Amino acid sequence: MANALSRALDSDLWYSFSRSPVTVASAAVALVCVLGAVFAPLLAPHNPFDLASLNLMDAFNPPAWMEEGNAAFPLGTDDQGRDVLSAIMYGARVSLIVGLSAVVFSTVVGVGLGLLAGYLGGTTDAVLMRIADIQLTFPSILVALLIDGIVRAALPPEAHEGIALYVVVFAIGISNWPQFARTVRGSTLVERNKEYVLAARVIGLSRVRIMLTHVLPNVLGPVLVIATLNLGFAILAEATLSFLGVGVPPTQPSLGTLIRIGNDFLFSGEWWITLFPGIALVALVLSVNLLGDWLRDALNPRLR
């Protein structure tokens, strides 16, 4: 363990990370957001979604530092009397779960199809890449909205709330797979003609085994960078869908849902209901994107 830590601290990646103040600050902000979301039940002052603990008399309390503010609600309360700080921490959990799940889903689909297209070539490559090209002509958020609408129309209304989270994950994930597929396909075209792949063919290994055990490990570098960058987009896409009212159900509100709720009261003076969830969303997405930019540069051998 000590040797592994020592090697990590001596690596070029750690040197690049420690010499970039912006990256260190982004990592700190992302860590605070993630820890606050993961340990929300322990750290949040209140449980904003426990209906038995809500009191409408606490509605529209301003932040604690303002006149008429209440120290029990540091960032104020919303129209239902829910603590805004606690709602942000719980809402960030939903946003992170949806974002991570969507990225994992799109990574698995994109990498699998990219390997098939690059290694098999021919008709398989042509069909898969044309499908990817067609999908890339549409904005990802519109594809997610289309898929969400189709699923909602195909299922009975009483089933919507129970599967809403899965539908959002599927809609966001399936709209992002072409980026992974095209990247992996390009790397696979290079790797499939190298000597170690030819040697594996000569000894009689199957195509599936060659792709999974020989080609795949050598094409995962760019995938890690794309996945990190897409995490911020997935969180933002979920917030957009929830803001439009087609995302996660109201019983599991995310940051986008909190912003939508606060937007209804923005011009009546209760600005804190939408401002603080918006700041939390910007901080989370910006820190993840900055980390993705750093990782892309750090893993690029041409910039070393």
From TrEMBL:
TM helices/strands, residue ranges: 21-44, 94-119, 131-151, 163-184, 215-237, 271-295
Gene Ontology BP terms: transmembrane transport
Q: Cross-referenced InterPro entries, in alphabetical order?
A: BP-dependent_transpt_permease, MetI-like, MetI-like_sf, OppC_N
- Organism for this UniProt entry: Teichococcus rhizosphaerae
Q: Domain of life of the organism in this record?
A: Bacteria
Query: Does this UniProt record's set of keywords contain Metal-binding?
Result: no
Instruction: Name the predominant localization.
Output: membrane
Q: Which family does it belong to?
A: Belongs to the binding-protein-dependent transport system permease family.
Q: Which Pfam families match?
A: BPD_transp_1, OppC_N
Membrane topology, as annotated: Multi-pass membrane protein
Entry GO terms, CC: plasma membrane
Protein name according to UniProt: ABC transporter permease
Among PROSITE patterns, the record links this protein to: ABC_TM1
Its keywords, alphabetically, are: Cell membrane, Membrane, Transmembrane, Transmembrane helix, Transport
**Location relative to the cell:** Cell membrane
Q: Key word Transport present in the record?
A: yes
Annotated ABC transmembrane type-1 domain residues:
92-292
